Amino acid sequence: MAWEIDARTKIIALVGDPIEHSLTPRIQNAALKQLGMNVRNIAFRVPKGSLRDFVKGAKVAGILGVMVTIPHKGDAFKLADERDKFAELMGSANLLIFKDGQVVAYSTDGYAASRSLKEAGIDVKGKWVAIVGTGGAGRALAFQFALDGASKLLLFNRTAERAKKLSNELKRKLGFNELQIFPHDPDLLRRELKNCDLLVNATSVGMHPNEDEIPITADALHRNLIVFDIVYNPVQTRLLREARRKGCKTVDGVPMLVYTNEKALELCLSIKVSQDLVNLMLRVCYSALRRRS
Ligand SMILES: NC(=O)c1ccc[n+]([C@@H]2O[C@H](COP(=O)([O-])OP(=O)(O)OC[C@H]3O[C@@H](n4cnc5c(N)ncnc54)[C@H](OP(=O)(O)O)[C@@H]3O)[C@@H](O)[C@H]2O)c1
């Protein structure tokens, strides 16, 4: 089937800075081609402070939606006319849609992380969850796991104020009080992980090109711990390799990335993405990452 760009082609934009490394255009365009839709995902490098100008132009140009990544997630939230519930909780957004002349902001990282665990047969309800890293992604995970019924959240972060701020927000916005905050310290992690069911790495430690790094010491792992590393490049991080060696169940970061793309397609195109299409996006993503390693 010819899949040409013509005068009717619509665009889903991806904006960030840097953006050249992103797999999203490749993942979404494979899905759009399979759907036979005259729509393309195109990445734009937009410097910090320029998102408002971009969105103004996108609205006029009939762009279907704007997927937003670092450093624009806070600005995306601020410039929107309406926001979904999760974006309100987060104070940031990763997707903007144009609806009846209004800009509507969504935050989908929490959904994507939660679904990744569910598809792996893991229910966060009743679990003690340690989240290492309370940056943008760690925040989304903490809010989502509190909503999903985790019994306790243990938040570790290198910069103490960031973990403190998140802990205060979880208490104030969700009335979630079953939490403790810690500095990102190997000894504290070893002590506290003994009581945890699930460990999530939401730091960039172990990400390409620093693939030898690990956010905890391997001796802190035990076989009853489920380990979810949201870093997806490389897919098999050192943390996941050490965890499997200890007999832990593991979940990598690729499904989370794919579910973010699935949700963006659904919201931008008002369609329901099938499981077959999700499987296609997973295959495209794993194969692109295999080629990079
Ligand atoms: N799978 C997915 O779909 C998905 C989605 C989003 C993000 N991610 C991945 O998740 C990671 C974090 O992304 P983000 O958006 O949350 O980034 P971010 O907002 O910049 O946060 C980075 C986090 O990593 C911590 N960190 C960075 N370097 C560290 C080090 N050397 N030692 C200890 N902590 C360190 C930071 O601690 P401080 O607060 O002390 O700086 C912060 O908690 C990235 O690798 C990203 O690719 C994956």
Written description of the protein model:
By secondary structure, the chain is an alpha/beta fold. Helices cover 42% and strands 19% of the residues. It has 2 domains: 10-107 and 255-292, Leucine Dehydrogenase, chain A, domain 1 (Rossmann fold, 3-Layer(aba) Sandwich); 110-252, Rossmann fold (3-Layer(aba) Sandwich). It has 11 helices and 12 strands. Strands 2-1-3-5-6-4 form a 6-stranded mixed β-sheet, sandwiched between helices. α5 packs across α6 (136-147), α5 (109-119) crosses α10 (254-269) and α10 (254-269) packs across α11. Bound molecules: NADP nicotinamide-adenine-dinucleotide phosphate (NAP). NADP nicotinamide-adenine-dinucleotide phosphate binds next to α5, α6 and α10.
**CATH superfamily placement of the largest domain:** NAD(P)-binding Rossmann-like Domain
Weakly predicted, low-confidence segments: none
Number of E-state strands:
12
Q: Please state the second-level CATH architecture of the largest domain.
A: 3-Layer(aba) Sandwich
Percent of residues in helices = 40-55%
Helix-strand makeup class? alpha/beta
Order of helices and strands: EHEHEHEHEEHEHEHEHEEHEHH
Q: Give the mean pLDDT.
A: 97
Q: Which CATH top level class of the largest domain fits?
A: Alpha Beta
What proportion of the residues form beta strands (DSSP E)?
Answer: 15-25%
Biggest pleated sheet:
6 strands, mixed
Shape: globular
Radius of gyration from the CA trace? 19 Å
